[in-house]
Amino acid sequence: MKKAPQQTWGGRFSAGPADIVKRFTESVSFDWRLYPHDIAGSIAHAKGLAKIGVLTNAEAAKIIRRLRAIRPEPDPSLEDVHMNVEAALGSVGRKLHTGRSRNDQVATDIRLWLRSEISNLKSQVSNLQKSLVTLADKNSGVIIPGYTHLQRAQPVLLAHHLLAYVEMLARDAARFDDCAKRVNVCPLGSGAIAGSTLRLAREFVAKELGFDGVTHNSMDAVSDRDFAAEFLAAAAICGMHLSRLAEDLVLWSSAEFGFIRIGDAYTTGSSLMPQKKNPDIAELVRGKTGRLYGNLVALLTILKGLPMTYNRDMQEDKEPLFDSADTLSASLQVMADMLRHTKINKAKCEAAASDPLLLATDLADFLVKQGMPFRRAHHAVGALVAESERTGVPLPKLAAKKYGASAAKVFDVRRALAARNIPGAPSPKQVCAQLARWKAVLR
């Protein structure tokens, strides 16, 4: 017994697809979230068809009323979000698909959805920046060791360290802004591949939808997912920044560092060891970065071998895109909340920052000011450090003995930080200025 042809494209076929094929090819289970954007695109398209006389004003108004009123439940037998919306319209909508294809329709829907997501993510990036600035401002005088190779290097203000992440996030926001420019171009009217013989009002429809303009090549318009790959790349880089921040928080919350205490509501315990307080939230943010990377690679792999123009492989673009937006959004939100419930252990920080070896470079600079070439000064201080380690005599005492009492003043950590008063450096004056700048920017 033959199955009835599928109504949307079934005229060419003597039978509809097998049940297993329906299950394999349906996308409504995940593309349903495009529903409000499909409605918005359809409303603009109806207005455009009325403008060129394909619909009467009365027909367009009726279709638009129905589009605004319908709240259909997704039906997997209707394959995708577009067919669900069309079916929900009933007979009144039979003219609506004139001059468009699901190819340009889905390309438009994704751009509308992504435009909204970028706006939301930028807001969440800003929220995380505010949490970092607030934590830095509350602890603006706290000194910690700065690290290279995860070894103590030179002293910095904790605020300077936290503001480094604010700078990273600013670049993330700028990348999303830049991506949004290429997202905000309207492909509707490109049809399946070759536009339409109808004089579609493309610029009018684009303006109705808030796009900056229209695409200029119908083949590229329906097959272009560069904007999606670009978004996934920006999301992956942002995730990498969150992962680095999470790693610092994991280290700083350990007993070995003890620089911070994360609020109980943002940690978990052990099912076996009753004393444990684990930074699981930071660890999960760090772990979820792998999903962001994977989604980018997945989409690039889908696209890399496709001939012009639309191919069904491109149905697989949505789940990586949706997952990255959801994952990054959740990570940004939980990190911002966690930082608002994180306390700094000033005593632990400053005990670590009191290590005189952190100011070995300052001693070399002192010798340079006395006229010694830097390479010779570097070697001389290195020899003193080795002697200090061998004999147990503190470096400041050895320096004073060899180079005079004024050399010992180098090891005053607050004086050393104050001396780092050039743009971008961690002196209290410079950090205070950067805090003021960021508070103004984020206000």
Can you put this structure into words, describing what you see?
The chain has 443 residues and is mainly alpha-helical. The chain folds into 3 domains: 17-98, Fumarase C, Chain B, domain 1; 103-137 and 149-351, Fumarase/aspartase (Central domain) (Fumarase C, Chain A, domain 2, Up-down Bundle); 353-442, Ribonucleotide Reductase Protein R1, domain 1, CATH 1.10.40. The protein has helices at 19-25, 28-31, 35-51, 57-69, 81-89, 102-138, 158-183, 202-208, 218-223, 226-252, 280-304, 318-340, 346-353, 360-369, 374-391, 395-403, 405-408, 413-419, 428-442; strands at residues 143-148, 151-157, 260-262, 342-344. The strands form 2 sheets. A two-stranded antiparallel ribbon has the order 1-2. The chain has a two-stranded antiparallel sheet with strand order 3-4. The radius of gyration is 30 Å and the shape is elongated.
State the main characteristics:
443 residues; mainly alpha; Fumarase C, Chain B, domain 1; Fumarase C, Chain A, domain 2; Ribonucleotide Reductase Protein R1, domain 1; 3 domains; two-stranded antiparallel ribbon; two-stranded antiparallel sheet; 19 helices; 4 strands; elongated
Taking Cα atoms only, what radius of gyration do you get, to the nearest Å?
30 Å
Return the average pLDDT rounded to an integer. 95
**What is the annotated CATH architecture of the largest domain?**
Up-down Bundle
Please report the number of helical segments. Answer: 19
Written as H for each helix and E for each strand, in order along the chain, the element string is HHHHHHEEHHHHEHHEHHHHHHH
Principal-axis shape: elongated
Structural class: mainly alpha
| The CATH superfamily title of the largest domain | Fumarase/aspartase (Central domain)
Strand content: under 5%
Distance between the termini: 68 Å
In total, the number of domains comes to 3
For the biggest β-sheet, the strand order reads 1-2
